[in-house]
Amino acid sequence: MSYPPPLSDSEQDEAVELRPKFDAEGLVAAIAQDAETGEVLMLAWMNAEALQQTIDTGRAVYWSRSRNALWRKGDTSGHEQHVVEIRVDCDQDAVLLKVRQTGAACHTGRRSCFYRIATPEALTKS
Amino acid sequence: MSYPPPLSDSEQDEAVELRPKFDAEGLVAAIAQDAETGEVLMLAWMNAEALQQTIDTGRAVYWSRSRNALWRKGDTSGHEQHVVEIRVDCDQDAVLLKVRQTGAACHTGRRSCFYRIATPEALTKS
Asked: A101 lies in which domain range?
């Protein structure tokens, strides 16, 4: 699996082809957002293969940096993400998945990974 | 500026102190989301100083990887981000800012950086 290389600056911003700008590890950041509520659920990573499988299958597939392996969300936990829409940002180093989330996005069992609020003093749980 | 180090696994997930898990470049990912509409506006990066300035001042401050410098969003463009809430994810390698965005979040002049939809064939602009 390979994509055409990123273009420079404004050409990349206006490209109408997918030209992901992978980092030194070959990854782009991927944000998963609940398609209905708008809640941001999690941030994970995708390599070229994960991105292509996500586009082709409509299921969110990530690259697990801790396990060094493709990670089809929900295969173990049952907490699948069905992709409603995939967006890319201006320079194509980040993607935004709007998903229908089964159960919890977070491995802690919470709906979203962003369950703590940072204040100047500490973190509070919401 | 320094933070206590990340804890391991479930201790980190439940920590009630800010213990950012910076990557090899000393950065965490930062998602900016419109506090009112829920629209995801951009993804950028923060080092410890950017994160602390954001918490202390209520203005979004990022680390520009291209310029290798702190970047107080809006200082040049006028497109400031006023922070309503800061959340951190389970392992604290990503933060979510809920912001009031002045003007455009994207340097292309668009409200959000995620203005293209990926399809199996190409990108379309929304």
From this structure: 9-125
